[in-house]
Each structure stands twice: as C-alpha cells, then as structure tokens.
Design goal:
This protein is an alpha+beta fold and 408 residues long. The chain contains three helices and 25 strands. The strands form six sheets. Strands 2-9-8-4-5 form a five-stranded mixed beta sheet, with helices on one face.
C-alpha cells in the first residue's frame, strides 16, 4: 500500500494581501502564458494518496535567488502565489513557505483532485515542473454469495466474492481454513471505478463442515480486508462397534459379551439397529438401544453382527465378527506355549550333545584307522618277490598273535 501523505499542520503567513490583490491578478493572468521551462532548478515528487486522506505537494528550489514560487492545479488555476491563496478552496492550506520551498496540503482528497499540479518559478526564462497526484479508492463493499447454504458431502458448490467500486482493480484471493484455493475473476469498469467478482467451485466433504471459506482482498489502499462464510455440510453416519466386555482376551463359552455401537453424522442418526449377517439373531441376544448383550456365549453364536445407522443423507454400518472359543481355550493355550518352550529347549540341548559326541568319535576313529593300515603294510616293501610280500604284509605264520584286531 502506498504511503499516505503526512500533514504537518499549516503555517499561515499572510500580511498585506489586500494591497497586492490588483498586482496578483495581473500576474495570475500572465501565468497562463508563461512558457514551460526545463525546471532545472525546481524539485518535486509525485504523490499517491487514499481517497479521503491528506495529500502534501512540495515545490522546492535548489538554488534560491528570491524568485517567486507558484503552485497551479490541473486546470492551471493558481492555488498559491507565494503565501497567498487566490483559489477559493479551503481544503488547500499552506504548510510552509520560504524562498526555497512552497509546501501545500490538500485535505479530504477525492477522485476529482487527481491529475498534474504545476510548480512554477519566475526566473528568466521561467521554469516549470509538475507533480502527479494519484488517488486510490478501496473497495466499497466485500460480499460472499454461496450457491447453497447447506450442502451434502460430495457436492460441488459455487461461491462468489465481489469487491465493488475500487481503484485500481482489486485482486481477490480465496482460502479454505489455512489452505489457499484458486478462483476465477472478472473485472467490470464503471467510469473510473472497478468492480471485481471472483468465482470459486468447491467440492465439499464431511471434513469441511464448520470450516471457514475466506475471501481476501489485495489492494494498495487497504490492508487485511476480508470476509468469510462457514460451510455447512451434511453427511451420512460414521459407525463404529466397540467391545465392552471382555475388555481383552478371548470370547469363550459360558462367558458374557457386550458390544456398543456409536454413530456420528449430520444430522445426527435417528435410526440405529443390530442384525446378524446371513442368519437370524439368536433369541438369547438382548439389544438395548446401541448395546448388544449375550450373557452366556456358545458356539452357535458364531457369526457376523452388524450395527446399522441412518439419517437423512444415507445409511452406514460396521461389523463385528464373533468366534466363540472353548471354555479352557486360553488356559490350554498358555500351557501349550510353556510345554513347547520346554520341549524346544530340551531338544536343542540333546542335538548339541549328539553333535559334540559325533565329532569326538569321528576324530578317534580317524586316528586308529590310520594306525591299523600302517601296521598291516609293514614288511611288504622289503620282500624279495610277490609271494614273500604277501606273506610279510599279512604278518606270516609267526605273527599270528599280532593279527588281532580291536574295535571299539
């Protein structure tokens, strides 16, 4: 947003104005035919101001030689000649006057005040420079129109945000909660004003219920201008079945079972019922509102139990699968778990011991088998012929006692 012009307060300096009036009128009529110079000794700045605020125009002389300074409006009417104001518009007030500056404020600025203002310096040749006043107009109104006040989940709704009579044209941004969305804008121009309308198409779900949709304006004349509408979305029930008893563990024969059904929707579900899928509900089952109770479970109760809930939008359900175990199923399972652990440990120890024994026996047999072969061949290498070698290898008649073999 452009900085607004500051007004430091008027400093009136007026004495002797009536006596100079004829001379001033002559000078003012001559000012209309003063040729435009290059303004090399004059300094000024453009002014941007919000409608209704104060604009300050400053005509400054870099090297003053006591020449006369004059300020003219876009119609080239003199606003101030030195410190005298011939223009009958009290909104112009003298802020500062000296040989080097003429500073004038304009209060309650309107669109009609926009344009070029001329600073003139009566030198030879005369000098002139202009400053431009730009007036910003914030949007007059910001409105969101919604296609449907109440939507159903899955529907696509249309929202329109309109920013009226601004200058320049506004930029409209959309947000759903903290998430920015993209809309489509159209601009209409009326005289010097602009009206902008932005359209947003939004597919809504149950998570959007109660979420604000925000229309925010980006404009140099205004900050944080926004409006919002809260979405109202209808959706079918969301159903959940919980097991109250037994809290943990198995559902066993002879024990009770208690289930609770919870349903949430918009509008709140008005119809809720229990049923058994693919079979009739057992006669000993007690249904009380959202609760289902079986006081004495047996295996004929096995099956799928369904809780259904409905509202004006639709119907939903949640299932609970019941399997009834033997009365000692939990204890036997725990015993079996312990037995399996013990047996597994014993088997591991036995296998380890057998492996160790096999390794020891293998090494023992390998050592004695080598010794046996060595004795059996002793004497065969020194035999004179084959027959003698065979006799010597077998130990001969005289070595019959050494022929004994021992096995472990």
């Amino acid at each position: 947003m452009a900085a607004r012009a500051q007004h430091s307060g008027p400093a009136a300096n007026g004495g002797g104005a009536p006596a100079l009036l004829p001379l001033l009128l002559l000078l003012l009529s001559a000012a209309a035919i003063i040729p435009r110079g290059d303004g090399q000794n004059l300094v000024t700045e453009d002014v941007t101001v919000v409608e209704g605020d104060v604009a300050t125009i400053s005509c400054r002389v870099k090297n003053s030689d006591d020449s006369v300074i004059q300020l003219l409006n876009p119609n080239r009417q003199t606003i101030y000649f030195r410190d005298f104001r011939p223009l009958k518009d009290s909104r112009f007030q003298l802020v500062n006057f000296s040989n080097s500056e003429l500073r004038v404020s304009l209060t309650n600025v309107s669109i009609s005040d926009e344009g070029r203002y001329f600073c003139q310096l009566y030198t030879d040749p005369p000098q002139e420079i202009y400053t431009t006043i730009t007036v910003l107009v914030p949007p007059r109104n910001l409105v969101i129109d919604i296609q449907k006040e109440i939507a159903v989940e899955g529907e696509e709704i249309e929202l329109n945000c309109t920013a009226m009579a601004s200058r320049p044209a506004t930029t409209i941004r959309w947000f759903k909660g903290n998430k920015e969305l993209t809309g489509k804008s159209e601009v209409e121009q009326w005289s010097d004003m602009y009206t902008v309308t932005s359209q947003l198409l939004l597919k809504v779900g149950r998570e959007d219920d109660g979420v604000p949709v925000i229309c925010l304006v980006d404009h140099p004349a205004v900050k944080d201008l926004q409006t919002q509408r809260y979405l109202e979305v209808m959706y079918k029930p969301q159903v959940r079945v919980s097991q109250n008893y037994p809290v943990q563990g198995l559902t066993r024969e002879g024990e009770p079972l208690e289930l609770t059904c919870a349903a949430f929707g918009k509008p709140q579900p008005t119809d809720m019922r229990w049923l058994r899928v693919d079979d009739e509900m057992p006669q000993h089952v007690v249904v009380s509102g959202s609760n289902l109770l079986i006081s004495n479970l047996n295996k004929t109760d096995n099956g799928t139990y369904r809780c259904e809930a409905s509202n004006a939008v639709g119907k939903s359900h949640a299932d609970y699968m019941l399997f009834v175990y033997d009365s000692r199923a939990g204890e036997e399972g725990a015993i079996r778990s312990v037995d399996h652990a013990v047996v597994g440990g014993v088997v591991a120890v036995v296998v380890f011991a057998m492996l160790c024994l096999l390794i020891i026996l293998g090494r023992y047999f390998a050592r004695h088998k080598g010794t046996y072969f060595t004795h059996e061949a002793k004497g065969a290498d020194d035999a004179a012929d084959a027959d003698t070698a065979i006799i010597n290898a077998e130990g001969g008649q005289n070595n019959s006692e050494e022929k004994k073999e021992y096995f472990i």
